Amino acid sequence: MEAMEIGKAAAADKLTYEIFSILESKFLFGYGGAATPATMSSASRGGGGGNNSNNKVCVLSIDGGSRPEDGLLAAASLVRLEAALQRRAGSKAACLADFFDVAAGSGAGGVLAAMLFARGPCGGRPMYSADDALAFLLRRVRRRGWCSGSGGGNIFLRRRRAMAAFDKVFGETTLRDTVRPVLVPCYDLATRAPFLFSRADADNSPAYDFRLRDACAATCAGENGAAVEVASVDGATRLAAVGGSGVALGNPTAAAITHVLNNRREFPAAGGINNLLVISIGTGESRNTTPAIARIAAESASDMVDQAVAMAFGHNRTSNYVRIQGMVATQRRDGERRVACGGETTETAVWAAEAMLQQRNVEAVMFQGRRLTSETNAEKLERFAQELIREHSRRKQQQAPVVASHAGKLPSSTTTTKKQL
Questions:
Q1: Which of 63, 218, 283, 297 could form an SS bridge with 241, CB 3.0 to 4.6 Å?
Q2: Distance (Å, rounded) from C-alpha 177 to C-alpha 123?
Q3: What is the pTM of this model?
Q4: CA-to-CA distance for 202 and 114, rounded, in angstroms?
């Protein structure tokens, strides 16, 4: 009798989860479809609402602030992830774009996404490696910002120098010139609404094809309240942009998921939330130089997105969804205990990012709030690398593209084209 009651309770818990999963997917991510017993059963097996394929769309999402040091945790994480993929794939030429189908980044995270997925001049390979991207951020940290010089108190001079820095990295490359779809948010003061730079929109209309240098300037803009004027390649669309990191989408994970689930032309295999394999990388805890109210608002918004996404994945959140986040690290120097603020020196910034990779952060638990994870961030990256390799191997065996026109192969001898930054 007792066994029967336990069985009924387990069945009720399973049904509750299935209903919650479908409602979460429908209302959070906009994926429709009536909730029927068939779709609920499909969701519990990982079909996500009608697609029984085991293939998964691989999504990279990177948080960011307006300053270069806000992207250092993500850059250090991506260097470690790319090295793990190269080791497991047995190819030194393997890069992150070989394993991810779409990348979203806000602020400094948008700069990283654009660098890692911009198409280089040789053989359609990415223009930069993760090591290149980290080196670029460290140089910007050393120079106290995106500018090549301080610029004094002249905000227009600083803005022009920042644009020049992005121009040196990307040149005339546009959203359409990426090896995988890239999403970068900002906030348009002219329309008072968020704006998402998207390759899908650029492919659909020249009026939404922007140069990557402009998209990066837009998502990093807004320091001291200054907007950046950017225009599409054909001049038809103009924005008065401030950064996506502090205003629009500090954590772009939900935007990336929504984009994939509602873009069946580019992502035909994305039948539902559990057809996704997502890694979301935070900025670490905000630095002491950030005003308290702004820090609380930014961290709360990012944490809410993390909570909602984790709940949408439900029982698959530990395998299909990984969140990398850190707290401000402390170190001892000359007998003193001090906070590593990430902007003092490049050495301190690197130390802080590496220290956060060794930390354990909190994760959402189904119907139970949040708890400390059993893995460090570094261990999560290793586990996620294994999932990416498994997904890549599955695709090669099936010979069926998960993303339309974007199914790539690992290079055997070619190397990532490096450009002088």
A1: 218
A2: 13
A3: 0.80
A4: 15
β-strand partners of 331: 338
Extents of the domains making up the chain? 57-146+155-328+348-398
What are the backbone angles phi and psi of residue 38, rounded to the nearest 5°? Answer: -65, -45
Class of CATH domain 57-146+155-328+348-398: alpha beta
Q: pLDDT truncated to tens, each residue of the chain (421 aa)?
A: 444 444 444 444 454 445 445 544 544 554 444 333 333 333 333 333 334 457 899 999 999 888 888 899 999 999 999 999 999 999 999 999 999 999 999 999 999 999 999 999 877 899 999 999 999 999 888 877 776 554 455 566 666 777 888 999 999 999 999 999 999 999 999 999 899 999 999 999 999 999 999 999 999 887 655 788 999 999 999 999 988 666 557 899 999 999 999 998 889 888 888 899 999 999 886 554 556 666 667 777 888 888 889 888 887 877 899 999 987 654 444 443 344 444 456 677 778 888 899 998 877 666 666 777 889 999 999 999 999 999 999 998 876 556 665 444 455 433 444 444 5
Alpha carbons 262 and 253: distance in angstroms, whole number: 14
> In terms of Cα–Cα distance, which of 277, 215, 273 is closest to 248?
215
Q: How many CB atoms lie within 10 A of CB 195?
A: 24
DSSP per position, 18-43: HHHHHHHHHHHH-------HHHHHHH
Strand partners, 332: 337
Handedness of CA 26, 282, 199, 130 (dihedral sign): negative
In the block, tokens 């008065």 appear at: 240
Closest alpha carbon to 196 in 239, 133, 146: 239
Compute φ and ψ for 365, nearest 5 degrees.
Answer: -120, 135
> In angstroms, what is the C-alpha Rg of the chain?
21
Distances in whole angstroms, Cα of residue 56 to Cα of each of 40, 100, 232, 248, 273: 19, 10, 32, 28, 10
Distance CA 307, CA 323 (A): 10
Whether 262 and 41 have beta carbons less than 8 Å apart is answered as no
Q: Which residues pair with 337 in a beta bridge?
A: 332
User: How many C-beta atoms lie closer than 10 Å to residue 316's C-beta?
Assistant: 18
**C-alpha torsion sign, points 383, 388, 393, 395:** positive
Within 10 angstroms of residue 278's Cβ, the number of other Cβ atoms is 26
Residue 218 makes CB contacts below 8 A (sequence gap 6+) with 184, 186, 195, 197, 228, 230, 239, 241, 242, 243, 244
- The helix-helix angle for 346-357 and 377-398 (nearest 10°) equals 70
CB-based burial of residue 241 (10 Å sphere; 0-12 exposed, 13-18 middle, 19+ buried)?
A: buried
List residues with catalytic annotation.
106
